[in-house]
């Protein structure tokens, strides 16, 4: 066992309500059921660790790493992180996710310690911090993908505040108090005022949405969808609607990537992606969700600045066989390996790697020989030298440490 460094990995499907029903089961070769499949987790997060198929039987990935951190992660990563520093996921977004912000590392450590001290159980619905880590993340679109990403630049936001009758009263607030004053004003509104204010907007956008005349680049489309999908409907209009108008609506095409750093407010709206993040589940929510919203905490961690969306196209490496998407995050890097039938990719893992085969078939040979097909995941510890051979056209997404 000790000299083997290459394993099949079995991840965990998360059945959150916003997920689709077919994409993840079809990817993994599982039966489609009544239960939504929102995320497929490949990693060692304590709440849902993956399992390795070892010679001696199933082995939890977090246990395998804890038993020999330097051998699996490498000395540097073992000293710096003490655990697998990334969490790799496949997402299928059918309904909009909550508007959210992730804290910095220092703030996560403080928040986690404070909630522990207050005796709030880790599983409590009013818990903000599930761990002591930051959660920068990158997503690579696997389909036509839509998301909200950061505040609109000032000229565009001014235009929106003028053009939408229900938002005009906030234009002076933005002029005087900037992004923070504007966001604080809407996030702290009493629910009755939100209902009164946004009801005419709802009445205007819903018929157009039902008629199919709204473009997805129009905030009215997502506003109408949010109201239509909310069991509360028009009785309790969601304060997250303001964010749909205040944030950039970004459309990423397959292969496009978007990086979300700490403090950038965002929300996934629709589509499938491969997502890689620091090993954390810390989320501060700001609407479009029945989950816990802590406005004070959210405002404390949001970066109140214009964001100019940066769609990352990646860089070609390894003689064009691999496309890598560098980010400022020290915890992770994602890349896509694409091979034609008969093509061979040779590599020595300079850090622990986690892969998922998105399509095609092949075989990887190293300290073990593993046939590959769609939906299969593999874990390679640091130092593993392997040869990946494609039998049909093969696409593999790979998570590693830069």
TrEMBL record:
Residue span(s) of domain Phosphomannose isomerase type I catalytic: 6-152
Keyword Protein transport: no
Biological processes annotated in GO: carbohydrate metabolic process; GDP-mannose biosynthetic process
Swiss-Prot/TrEMBL catalytic activity: D-mannose 6-phosphate = D-fructose 6-phosphate
EC number annotated for this UniProt entry: 5.3.1.8
Pfam families reported for this sequence: PMI_typeI_cat (PF20511)
GO molecular function: mannose-6-phosphate isomerase activity; zinc ion binding
Gene Ontology terms: cellular component: cytosol
Details of cofactor binding: Binds 1 zinc ion per subunit.
InterPro entries associated with the record: Man6P_Isoase-1, Mannose-6-P_Isomerase, Pmannose_isomerase-type1_CS, PMI_typeI_cat, RmlC-like_jellyroll, RmlC_Cupin_sf
UniProtKB keywords: Isomerase, Metal-binding, Zinc
Residues the record lists as binding Zn(2+): 100, 102, 137, 266
Active site per the UniProt annotation: 285
Enzyme class, spelled out: isomerase
The protein's required cofactors: Zn(2+)
Lyase found in the keyword field: no
Domain of life: Bacteria
UniProt record similarity statement: Belongs to the mannose-6-phosphate isomerase type 1 family.
Entry protein name: mannose-6-phosphate isomerase
Species this chain originates from: Chitinophaga niabensis
């Amino acid at each position: 066992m000790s000299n083997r460094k290459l394993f099949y990995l079995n991840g965990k499907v998360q059945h959150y309500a916003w997920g689709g029903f077919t994409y993840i089961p079809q990817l993994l070769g599982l039966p489609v059921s009544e239960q939504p499949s929102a995320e497929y987790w490949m990693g060692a997060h304590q709440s849902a660790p993956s399992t390795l198929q070892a010679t001696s039987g199933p082995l939890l990935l977090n246990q395998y790493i804890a038993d020999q951190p330097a051998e699996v992660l490498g000395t540097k990563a073992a000293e710096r992180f003490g655990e697998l520093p990334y969490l790799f996921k496949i997402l299928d977004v059918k309904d909009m996710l909550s508007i959210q912000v992730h804290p910095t590392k220092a703030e996560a450590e403080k928040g986690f310690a404070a909630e522990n001290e207050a005796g709030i159980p880790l599983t409590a619905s009013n818990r903000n911090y599930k761990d002591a880590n930051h959660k920068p993340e990158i997503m690579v679109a696997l389909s036509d993908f839509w998301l909200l990403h950061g505040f609109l630049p000032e000229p565009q936001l001014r235009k929106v505040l003028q053009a939408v009758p229900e938002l005009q009263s906030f234009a002076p607030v933005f002029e005087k108090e900037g992004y923070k004053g504007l966001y604080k004003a809407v996030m702290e509104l009493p629910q009755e005022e939100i209902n009164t204010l946004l009801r005419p907007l709802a009445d205007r956008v819903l018929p157009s949405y039902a008629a199919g005349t709204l473009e997805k680049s129009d905030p009215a489309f997502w506003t109408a969808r949010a109201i239509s999908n909310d069991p509360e409907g028009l009785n309790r209009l969601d304060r997250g609607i303001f964010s749909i108008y205040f944030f950039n609506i970004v459309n990423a095409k397959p292969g496009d990537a978007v990086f979300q750093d700490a403090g950038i407010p965002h929300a996934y709206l629709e589509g499938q992606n491969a997502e890689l993040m620091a090993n954390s589940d810390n989320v501060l929510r700001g609407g479009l969700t029945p989950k816990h919203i802590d406005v004070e905490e959210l405002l404390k961690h949001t970066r109140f600045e214009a964001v100019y969306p940066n769609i990352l196209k990646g860089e070609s490496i390894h003689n064009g066989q691999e496309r890598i998407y560098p980010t400022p995050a020290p915890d992770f890097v994602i890349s896509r390996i694409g091979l034609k039938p008969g093509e061979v990719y040779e590599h020595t893992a300079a850090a622990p790697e986690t892969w998922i085969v998105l399509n095609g078939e092949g075989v990887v040979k190293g300290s073990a020989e593993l046939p590959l097909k769609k939906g299969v995941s593999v874990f390679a510890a640091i130092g593993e030298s392997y040869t990946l051979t494609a039998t049909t056209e093969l696409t593999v997404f790979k998570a590693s440490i830069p």
